[in-house]
Amino acid sequence: xxxxKPKEVTLFSLSLFLVLAYGASIWTWMRIPSSPVTWYILPxxxxxxxxxxxxxxLLSYRVLVVDNDHWQVTRLxxxxxxxxxxxxxxxxxxxxxxxxxLYKQLQVFAGKGKNVxxxxxxxxxxxxxxxxxxxxxxxxxxxxxx
Length: 146
Hints:
Order of helices and strands: EHHEEEEEEH
Strand content: 25-35%
Largest sheet: 4 strands, antiparallel
Mean pLDDT: 87
Number of strands: 7
Strand order of the largest sheet: 1-2-3-4
Distance between the termini: 34 Å
Shape: elongated
C-alpha cells in the first residue's frame, strides 16, 4: 500500500506564512487609529491574501492511497474519490526546469472529476506512485510536449 500525502515541511511553511499574514493584518488593524488613512489598505490586503491562501490550502490538501491497483483520494474539504486502475485513461510526468533544479509533477486522469496531481517536492511517496504506474499502466503514459 502506498500512501502519498503533503510533506510536513510544506504544511509548516504554509502555516507559518498564514500566521504571519493574519498577525500582520491584526497588528496593523490595531494600530490604525494612530495611523494615516492610507494605512487602512494594508490590513485589508494582508487579510485578503491570508484568506485566499487558507482556502487554497484547504481545497488542495489530499491524501492518495494506492492499494492493489485501487486508488483513493481523500480530501480535507470535499468528497472521497475512488477508482480502480482499469479506469485510468492516461497519466503523465511533467518535468519543469527551474533555477533551483527540476520540478516534477505526476498527473493521473481517470475520467471526469477523477484527476489526481502530486509533485515530488510537495508530496511523500512520489517515487512509489510513479513506480506503480510504470509497472501496471506503462501503456497509458503520454509524453509531455513542450
